[in-house]
Amino acid sequence: MGRDQKTTPSLQHILQQFDQCADLSRRNFPEIRVDIVYFPHLVSSKLLTDEILEPFARPQGDKIEQLLEQSQFVFQADVKKVVVGILGGSVAIFHMDQVYMLDAYGPETRSLVQSETETIITGPHDSFVESASTNLSLIRRRIKSSHLKVIRCSVGEISKTDVYILYIKGIANLEYVEELQKRIQRIEIDAINEGAMLSQFIEDNPNSVFPQFLTTERPDAAESKLEGGKIITIIDNSPTAISAPASFFEFFSSPDDYYQRWALGTALRLLRYSALLITIIFTAMYVSITTYHYEMIPEALLRTLAESRTRVPFPPVYEALLMETMIELLREAGARLPTKIGQTIGIVGGIVIGQAAVQAGLTSNILIIAVASSAIASFVIPSYMMSASIRLVRFGLIILAGIWGNMGLSMGVALLIIHLSSLTSLGSSYLSPVAPMKGTDWKDVFIRAPFALLKTRPSQTRTPNTIRQKMRK
Amino acid sequence: MAEKLTPFHITILVYMTQSGIIIFTLPRQLAEYFGTNGWLFMVPCFVISSLNIYLISLVYHMGKGRSIFLILEQSISKVVLYPLYIGLSSVWLIFGCMIGKKYVLLFQMISFPTTNPMIFKLAIDLLALLLLTKGIYTISKATTVFFWVTIWMYLLLLGFIPNFQWVRLTPFIFKEGHDMVRGGLDIYTAFLGYELSLLYLPYMDHKKKSMRGVYAGNTILSVAYISFAFICFGFFSLGQLKKLLYPLLDLLAFIQLPFVERLENLLYGFFLFLILVTVVMYWWAAAESVQRILPRANISILCSILVGISFVVSYIPTTLDQVNTWIMYLSYAATGIAFGLPLLLVVLLLVQRKRRNSYA
Which segments cross the bilayer (chain A) (predicted)? Predict the structure, then answer.
């Protein structure tokens, strides 16, 4: 009885902390004077049964003390840590006046499925899920090296989200690791819900439209970044890993490029850069030419263009903005709706944009081609974040082209280049390896050279170990 | 890690600062002043500019990479230097400003004859200011991108080779020209821009052979100018070339693709990048000089004031002719600075060395 009274205050204190938490579970083993407190949905039921329920259910007198001396039961005297432990999926075991913790974290998680935002044709199809431990395992099973180091931090005053910084010792630059850790520890917010959200807190220029850290859902991409000397950050409850430092050009490569023959990989890279150009300037060029520079159209094409625009009552800039907005509406609706309804939206949108708008005299046929090409081209860019940013920038260029024609377009591009030049990622140039120029990196940026030529790691990482391949042929 | 300008970036910066508005008129000026085979005059220009760069490299080596302002201030009183700094910055500021204004007036003439050119000027000035306030390293990064965005245009020259005729070059050299001395001075201004490398000295990576970057930049520009002028002399006849106001635009207008023609309209926009870098670099040099007088001034505010002043000044000349006259006089002053300033610095460094030896 006396013993019970001694354990009660501590137990009471914890129960008081979790007052009105209906999902908290408390079980009592009176024979051995043990109380356990835990959240059933956070702990693995198998672990709970094997480590606690079964051994504790068969009372063996005073052997309970011996049982609790096993290494999986950690003595804990700090009440705060007990609370944090329970919230983190541990089982708090109250015996006599002492508290032991058993880490039994094992909530239900989504199974490993294919990434929806970064699909590839060849190569591994698994992707990160919302469990950080699963994500860590996906990387650990790929990099079987003790040099793969993991730093654990906690972010969010209320959410206390676990954040893991991964790097390969001897390959990653430790200055970057320290800088990243410092930035993560500086965050003061109630909760962080997603990796992409975290990246906005640690970016060099959070007001820029461009993402300064690469985010990926693919473990093979994360692995190759780590091996290239980059740092990966994994956030619990998020399938998005952050790779830092990042370069603007990195957003145009896909793991696929390395799985295909180098000639195909190179062609794909070049295609993506063409897509970037088309996305940015195609519609703006249409606006510029049809507003101010009709003389640029060859005579044979001029008639078709003029006929196509005869019924359109608006200046080209309004026409283009209208259609671009329509495409964005369709895209957004398609992204939010369930797949089956999304398809309907696609068909309806296709008819509205493709036929009805032209027949009603709201737009010209050629604009439809320009808008559609530029929308399709934007989806060729592998990173959704970058693709969305570029689509937004396009609106600015269309407006500038509508005001000053080709000169407006040039000014817009100049502004874009100036902005990109001023951006940094973890303090390194965002335009690396173009500015500062590192010609040796170009063969893995603009093209995907044969593996025999890809001998060094990207210079942006300032890695102490530059050589990644020593094969002669 | 403190960033440094690598030789490659110096090459690009020098080349991009040098290539400017004069390229639009260069073949005509060569034809007018030097007549037949006028393009050959670019060769002595290249040699002279290289000699001038040699003077600058002397300053770099003798001064051990010190800033020119430090060298000047070590020997000359600030009472004398401040007016010199104001003079330097005024020339550089207004020279940059007039280059911008000329580009705007040309553009207005081609595409927007009824629009007030000062609106375009304001937009370009704001772009330049935005880049200027970011500092020399960001300027160098942006310049590298602008370089890659524009350098491919020289490949277009290959398209004119089928229409190139050797007979148009004639076997005569420098016949039917006039006023060659003045013409030589005018044309030499096409090479200006390398003199600003005097101000890069403290930003250079002293472990690398940075001065080679300046020579390389000047060489790239010379090769580009010579090949461009050479093609023009073989593409147009001499009489034609003398009459064309802007031969570059006529050359570009010749290009026809199946889906687009009159490319000069589009390519003129690309020249904005070259002009922007030239303007920004001259303004940066002006800001560096003024900063020596006002070392505690906030760089963004200082740049904004300088750009504001230059914008007001650009209201004064209103026609292309007036702007050309301003540019002519300012380019004479800039040429004087290009030769005079490194000479002065070399003399000062010799005096300083002698004084040091006598103390030792």
Answer: 270-289, 366-385, 397-420
